[in-house]
Design a protein that fits this description.
Layout (H helix, E strand, L loop, with lengths): L1 H15 L7 H22 L2 E14 L2 E8 L10 E6 L2 E10 L3 E6 L6 E9 L2 H13 L7 H7 L16 H12 L7 H12 L2 E5 L6 H14 L4 E5 L2 H15 L3 H4 L3 E3 L16 H8 L1 H21 L6 H35 L2 E5 H6 L1 H4 L3 E6 L7 H8 L2 E9 L13 H6 L4 H4 L2 H6 L7 E3 L2 E2 L4 H10 L6 E2 L3 H9 L9 E5 L8 E2 L6 E2 L1 H17 L5 E5 L2 H13 L7 E5 H4 L4 E7 L20 H11 L1 E9 L1 H7 L5 H12 L3 E2 L21 E4 L2 H13 L4 E5 L24 E5 L13 E3 L9 E5 L3 E5 L11 E4 L2 H11 L10 H6 L16 E6 L2 E6 L5 E2 L3 H11 L10 E6 L2 E6 L2 H4 L4 E2 L6
Helix pairs in contact: 2-3, 4-15, 5-7, 6-7, 7-8, 10-12, 11-12, 21-22, 22-28
Amino acid sequence: MINQKLSQSVVETKKLVSPPLVNYPNYVSDFTLALRSEITVARKNGGQKAFLTEGKHIGQREKWVFYSFISDREITLPDDTEVKLEYQGKEHVGLIVANDGFTLILGLDSYVGEIISTLVMQTNPIFLLEKLIERLHASQNLAANNKLAYRLLQRLDLSELSSPSQIQAKQLLDKISLRSGQPLEYNQYQLQAVNSVLGRDISFIWGPPGTGKTKTLGLSVAALAEAGQSILVVAHSNAAVDVAMVNIGANVKNSPLYEAGKILRFGIIRNQELEKYPNLHVRGVVEKQNRLLMVRLKMLENERKDLTKKSRVENISSTNLRLITQRINSVTDELKQITTELHNLELQLVSQAQVVACTLSKMTIASEVFQRQFDAVIIDEASMAFIPHCVLAATLARQRVAVFGDFRQLAPISQSEETVAHKWLHRDIFEQAGITDHVETNQPDPRLVMLRTQYRMHPAISAVPNKFFYKEKLLNGPMVEQQASRVTRVYPSPGEAISLFDISNMLAYCYSDSQSHSRFNPVSALLTTNIAYQVSLQAAQGGIGIITPYAAQSRLIHKMLRDLKLIDKNVKVATVHRYQGSEQDFVIFDTVEGPPKEKVGKLVIGGMDSTAMRLTNVAISRAKGKFISLFHQNYMRTNLGQSDIFKHVFEHLAATHRPKTLTWPTSYGLNVTSNFNLSLPGVVYYPSSTAAAKDIEADLLKTKEEVAIYWPADVKARQLFGINVLRSLNPEKVHFFISGAGQGEFSIGLKNTRLWQNRLQTTIGLLGIDRNFLWIFLCPKTDFPNYPVIRLALSETVKLLHNFWELVPEKEGPTIGDKIAAGQSPIGRPCLMCGGAMWLEEGNYGPFLRCTKCRNSKSLTKNDVTDFARLHGIMCPNCNGQMAGRKSDLGLFLGCTNYSITKCNGIRFLQEFL
C-alpha cells in the first residue's frame, strides 16, 4: 500500500513538468564528445606511473588477490579502476580496491607471494571512460528510464513548479524504530530530506560539512526499503559506499530483508564498522550459505602460504623445490576454481537483492547492476561525479532519483580543457540542474532540502564556512563545543579552536617540481611536520590531518612523516581532493604559496564559483576541534586580488584570530627573540653557517659515493664552509654534481665532476651527500652570514628533494675524467677516422679540433666549445656563472648561460686559452 502511494506521488510530480524526450540522444552525443576529449588527454599524458613499496598479501576475494601498498605519490584515480602492474619483469592486471592517497589496496590477477618489495603501477582512466560511453549509448534503449535522466538535467521554471504531496516519512521510520526497539535519531531537516526523497521523482539533498548527510541517506534507504522499494546506492569511492552502508545497516539490522541477505554491499569492503553487519556484505552472505566451501578455501590459502615459505628455504634440494612448486600450482588451480564458484554465487545474490550499494565505476562495469532497473537510485558525493555518470545512474531508476552532496565542496576532476569537457565534466549535477543558481539568487527550489545542523566542527571553526559559503544558514549541534574541548585545550594556542602561523619571516620559498610542476615549499613542509609532531606528543589519541592544495607538497610531507614514523601515530597527509568526506580532530592546512613565485597558483585563485572556494571550504571544514594553518601573509596580501575568495577568508581569519608571526632562533643578525623551535628527530637547525661549518665538514668526510651541490650567484662558498675538504674525498669513488649560477665557486680541481645547469632558480644553497643528508643554506650571503642553515638526515625526504630540485641529472652520463680514462674524446665526438680523442688547436682561421692519433681534423661546434669550458672550469668573468658555446658572425665564443635570466653579457674567447 505504501509503495503504491510512493509511486502515485511520483506520477503527480511528473505531471507538473513533462519535457520532450527528443533531446536525450543529443545529450548522449555531447557526453560522448566530452568523454572522448578526456580520453585524448589521458592518452597524450600516458597515465601516471607510481612505485609501490611494502606490499603485503592480505587476502583473496572473487578473482582478485589483495595486497596493501605504500605509494611514492598520491593516487587520484577512483576505486574500481583497473591498472597495469609490473613485478619482477612480468606484467599483471590490477584493480584499485581502496585509495587513501598514499596507502593503496590493490587486487592482483594472481598470487605473487606474501611480500612484495617494489612494484610499478601504471594508471590510466581510459578503460572506465570508454565503458561509460558504451553504457550511455546503451541507455538510449527502451529499458532505460530516459525520461527521468532527462529531467535530472533540466533547470526547472520555478514559477510553474509546486510542491507535490509528500508521504510522511515519519510513519515509516517509526515502524523501523518499533521493530528494532530503539528510537531513530534525526532532526527536522533530516526528516524533511527523507520526506523529499520519498515524495519526489527528483530530489536534491544539500549536505554541508558535518550535517549528517550520510546518516540521512541511510534513513532514506531504510524508509524506501520498508515501503517495498528496490534501491541502488552509488558513490564516487568505496570508502563513501562503506560509510553509507554502515548508516543503512544501523537502521535495517533487525529487518527481514537484512536477515534474508537482500540488502547488499557489492564490492570490496574496507570499513571495519561494516563487520557488525555481516549480512550486508555479499561475501558474508555467501560464506553463511556455503560454510564447507569456505573452510576448504581457507585451508588451501594456508597451505599455499606454508608451501611458499618452504620454497624459500636456503639450500633446498632441486627435487624438493620441484615437488613444492607442483603442489603450489595444484593448490592455486583449485583456489581459482573455488573463487570462481564463489564469485558466481555472489553475482546471483546481487541480481536478486532489493538494495544494492556500489561505486559508480562498479555500476558502469558490472552487468548485474547496469542491466537492472531499481525503483529508486540514490547518488552520494554527487558534486564529485561527472554529470554523465549521474545521468547513467538515473537511467537505472523507474520512479525516483535522489542526489546527495554539497556543491560548495569539491567538483569533478577533469584534465581536458575542451569547451564540451568544461560543460559536462568540470561542472557538477547541482549546477546543471540550476540548484546552485537558485541558492545564489535566494530562490526557493522545491527539489532542494538543505541539512542545516552541523555536529562536527567547534563553533569557532564552523563560523568560517558558515559566513563565506553557506550564507549563515548553518546551526551548531547542542554538544559540539563540549565534544571539541579536549582538542582545543592542547597545543598550539591552548583554549583556541583556530591557530594561525604567519611564516613571512621564515625564508619559506616556494618552488615547482621539475617533472609535474606541482608546487612545494620545504620550509613550510618542515614547519607543518614540526607542528604535527608536537601535537602528536600531547594528544596521543587525536587524529591529525595535514591538508595541502598541491600534490608535490603532499608527497614531501608524506616522506617526512614516514621518516619520522608519524604515519603510525595517526597522522595523515593528503591534498584537499583526498580529504573530502573525512574529518580529523586536528587539521593543519599548509597553503604552500610564497616567494620567489611571481604569481599564486591557479588552485587558490578565483571567487565563489571557483576551485579555490571549494578547496578552502573542504580544508577548513575537515577540522573537528582545532584548525591550524600556516601561510605567508605578506605574499598573500600582495599577490591575491580582491576578487579571490582565498584572500577574503584568510584576511577574516587573521582579523578574528591573530596570527603568530614565526621567526627563526636567529633573526638574520638582528636582535629579535625567536618564538619558534624546530625540534624534529633527524632535523638540525643552525643559526648561522659559522655554527654549521664543523658539522658540514664532518658529513662531507663521511661521503661514500656522491656530492650534489646547487650554489647561487655572488656567494663565496668557501667563506661559509670549508670547501677544500672536497679535495680530500676519494676521487675514484666520489662523484660531484655541481649546478647553479655560482658553480664556479667549486672550480678547485675536483675530479669526477659534472658541471651542469638545471632549471632551479633560487638564492638558497644546497649540499647533498650520498642522498642521505641535505644541507639547506636558506640565504647564504657572505657579507651577512647569520642566516639559518638546516641539516636534514631524513633519507626518504632527502631523496625526494634531490628529485624535486634536480640536484643530480636524470641521465648522469660520464664525467670528463671518465671520458679521458676510457680513451674517449673529452671534447665532442671521437675521431670519425680512427676513433681517437679530439683536441683543440689554434689554426690560421681560428680554433679547430684535431685527432690526437691520426691527425684528422674537423670544425668546431657550439657543443664542442661548451665541452671545452666544462673541462677547464671556465666561468663568466662578470657573474661567475656557467659558460656555453655561442656563435656570431665573428665565429665561436663562450657566453654566460645566465643571460636569459639576469641579462649578464659576460663572454670569453677561445684564443685566451690556446
